[in-house]
Amino acid sequence: MRYSKLFSKTRKDIPSDEVSKNAQLLIKAGFVNKEMAGVYAYLPLGLRVIEKIKQIVREEMNKVGGLEFIMTSLQRKELWEKTDRWNDENVDVWFKSKLKNDTEVGFGWSHEEPITDMMRSFIKSYKDLPVYVYQFQTKLRNELRAKSGIMRGREFVMNDMYSFSLSNEAHEEFYNKTKDAYLNSFKRLGLGDDTFFTFASGGAFTQFSHEFQTITDAGEDIVYLDREKQIAINEEVYTTEVVNQLGLNRDTLEKVKTAEVGNIFSFGSTKSEQLDLYFTDNEGNSKPVILGSYGIGITRVMGVIVEKFSDDKGIIWPESVAPYKYHLINLNPEDSNVTAKAEEVYKYLSDNNIEVLFDDRVDVSIGEKLNDSDLIGLPIRLVVSVRSIEKGGIELKRRDSKEFKIVELKDIV
RNA sequence: CGGAGAGUAGUUCAAUUGGCUAGAAUGCGUGUUUUGGGAACACGAGGUUGCAGGUUCGAGUCCUGUCUCUCCGACCA
Fold this sequence. Notes:
elongated; alpha+beta; five-stranded mixed β-sheet; RNA-binding; single chain; 11 helices
């Protein structure tokens, strides 16, 4: 991609009303644009990051047997009335509207009810189970107060998976596989070292639900962490009884601030019973399907990554989610030799399907190009300049390092 | 939803007690110079001071309403 063709620009100043680090950096570097409080547009660079995150999660969900699909944003009121969650007193984040004929509809803040209802058409027999489906959906939530930049918006991208199993044992097995898939996802997303499996309040069916909490000051949760055992307890269920039950020692737990990046939840048969999702077992008995719900906040993960990986110059993307791997700079576009060499490098990388952002701008100062490169934060910077050619080639520098070396074309990849 | 604060150029901010043609930086445009860390100079464009109403000889400034934004709290299945 040629930077000269990219419409989004870096900027020196950011709107004063944006205080969160993630949104400040993402706006400054030209990844997102704020539409209104808690609502952000994702520009070409930002979208590439989202797609990278989605792809990692997609691969992990596929590994446990998930099938990708996509549900609707418009939802029927009746379904949510069956579970008593249409009422604004029970769910305070609804966006609601009306069809022209006055039929009330809701905008999807979750898809648990619609998917459970939809499965009534497809799950009739024990032979139809299990079913694991997931989607990447824009969720709409009428938050009373949006905050923390892209980490808590009114419109955000979420990966949600739903499991339909024929017994608690079968559910349990899938649940644990998914837990590992989640941990693996966060590892691949660059958050592995600071993301912990966390016991949290569970609702009616189970004592706990499980969250994946990433340590960051930008978070909104407090957890008590046992680093050795790699598990944590959310403040909301932190009691001596729970500590003992989990075989932990209160004295060795570390209190840390975290952001919830994922959540997995067992519904048992409660929701199936409410929405009438039953199957016939091999003895002809009618039984409720066992449900599980699993979610990863895609855009929140992006925000957390920015919060954690940056310095005073800008973002430092983990390689797995960086919009491009290489940031190629033609530092002296007025010099025909330099330009020819830079174009050669660009062609070489492009021909080999290697992701590269090529700063080919001719009317921009050297300092601005170098600063933009630090701000955007791609993993590897390649500079072609009069000086680099004198030294024998291309200057290669990692974003997270101060050292650089001179390399030739064939050494880049 | 409770509490607090703020809306002036694309952006960041000024503007004395209510008083001159609402300024500066940055960004943008043109030109000259410059070239390894957001370069220098010159010229230029850019505003219904969020919106509506009111008080006044006179309102960015005071009053009323309204919209929006931000922060703290509550909420976050």
